[in-house]
Amino acid sequence: MKFIDQTIIQVIAGNGGNGCIHFRREKYIPKGGPDGGDGGDGGNIWIESNNNLNTLIDFRFKKIFQAEHGTDGFKRNCSGKKGHDITIYVPIGTKIINYQTREIIDDLIQNKQKILIAKGGWHGLGNSRFKSSINRTPRQRTLGSIGEKRHIQLELLLIADVGTLGMPNVGKSTLVKNISGAKTKISDYPFTTLSPILGSVEIENKKFIIADIPGIIQGASMGKGLGIHFLKHLERCKILLHIVDLFPSDFSNPIENIKSVLYELKQYSIKLYKKPRFLIFNKIDLMTTLQINEFIKKIKNDLNIQEPYYLISSLQKIGTKKLCSDILYYLKK
Predict the structure, then answer these.
(1) pLDDT at 96
(2) What's 80's DSSP letter?
(3) Fewer beta carbons within 10 Å, N or C terminal of the chain?
(4) According to CATH, where is 3.40.50.300 located in the chain?
């Protein structure tokens, strides 16, 4: 299924039905009086979050949602039928934005959270409503009002406790797959991961959600690569895992790669840059203990790192259990 995380739609609520002008006519009741009924209210449009959805692909072709109009009133004081409401279902984590004003209308972060997005028109009144002691034969009625019409932007931000960060092919997808069982795509070419993927990690009878996003390359903040387009999905995460490949396939310098990712992250969002991070050094199964110690010494001198760091092999699952335990402990705090 194609991952769609942003779309613009138009919602049009139903118009209210008009009131009716009618007078009661019966053979033996010459002055029956007014009996025109009210119109029906127009249908509303609601948006509701649903945990069975994970993409906005349903809105790729259907862009206009229109509720039913209320019907006009009838004789014998019969009211018109109310227009049927429409409920639009979206994934949890969908942000609803007024497209014209850019105002955030609501942020649906819980299952079955529901919001009225376009209110139907109010019904018109029939002439029987205007009968009084001084107006026995009213010929007034009111028309139904127009339903609300809006252009809104739906923006999906995945809800995860933990997010992965790093250059392409550093082992993010392998780590997420091995600790969560998520069906990530793994191969030896850049940008194997084309869209964010969520996995559920269970440890010590507790769970946390981890998100795998496409890798970030130098120049991402200027539009290069894929990762910058999906960084917004890390905004809800409580902690980021910055994964570093100790043996990059392109023979690049791991320390320079760290600097590049942090630079691009800072250019994208200061708020995201300041999120808590764990630094994860991957593929230690390819190094000796002496090499590992020399690398850690060098990286401490070059980067003056303050965040916690871990030495793992996502492929061999070395150090991953300790990493997951520490993540869980951090999330509990």
Answers:
(1) 95
(2) P
(3) C
(4) 162-332
Paired tokens of 275: 């999120």
Q: Which residues of 148-186 are buried (b: 16+ CB within 10 A; e: fewer)?
A: bebebbbbbbbbbbbbbbbbbbbbbbbbbbbbbebebeb
pTM for the predicted model, two decimal places: 0.76
Low-confidence ranges of the chain (pLDDT < 50): 1, 186-193
What is the C-alpha separation between 157 and 51, in angstroms, rounded?
13
According to the model, what pLDDT value does residue 182 have? 64
Residue 318 vs residues 178, 198, 294, 295: alpha-carbon distances, Å? 11, 22, 19, 18
Helix (H/G/I), strand (E/B), else coil: 182: coil
CATH superfamily assigned to domain 162-332 = P-loop containing nucleotide triphosphate hydrolases (3.40.50.300)
- What's the CATH fold of domain 1-157? Spo0b-associated Gtp-binding Protein; Chain: A, (2.70.210)
- Residue with the two structure tokens 């229109």: 66
